[in-house]
Amino acid sequence: MANETPGLDQRDVAFDAKFFRYGFLAMMVFFIAVPFVNQAAGRDLIYLVFLMKVLCFGLFACAFNLLLGYGGLLSFGHAMFLGMAGYFSAHLAKVGLQFDQVTLFKVSIPLSVHLPPFSTELAILVSTAATGVLGLLVGLLAIRRQGIYFAMITLALAQMIFFYCLQAPFTGGEDGIQSVPRGKLLGMIDLTNNTAMYYFVLAVFTFGFLLIYRTVHSPFGQVLKAIKENEPRAISLGYQTERYKLLAFVLSATLAGLAGATKAIVFQLASLTDVHWSMSGEVVLMTLLGGMGTIFGPVAGSFVIMAMENYLSNLGAWVTITQGIVFVICVLAFRRGIVGELEALLRRRLTFRQFLFEVFAFRHHKRARDKKRG
Amino acid sequence: MKWQMKTLALAAAMAVAGSAFAQAKKDEKKEEDKISGGVVKIGVLNDQSSLYADLGGQGSVLAVKMAIADFNAAKNGLKVEVIFADHQNKPDVGSQIASKWIDSEGVDMIIDTPNSGVALAVNQVVRDKKKVFINSGAASSDLTGAKCSPNTIHWTYDTWMLANGTGSAIVKNGGDTWFFLTADYAFGHALERDTEAVVLKNGGKVLGKVRHPLNTQDFSSFLLQAQSSKAKIVGLANAGGDTSNSIKQAAEFGIVKGGQNLAGLLVFLTDVHALGLEKAQGLIFTETFYWDQNDASRAFTKRFAAANGGKYPTMVHAGVYAGTLHYLKAVAALKSDDGTDVVAQMKKTPTDDPLFGKGTIRADGRKIHPAYLFEVKKPSESKGPYDYYKLKATIPADQAFRPLKDGGCELVK
Question: Of A75, A280, B90, B336, which has the maximum CB count within 10 A?
Answer without folding.
Answer: A75
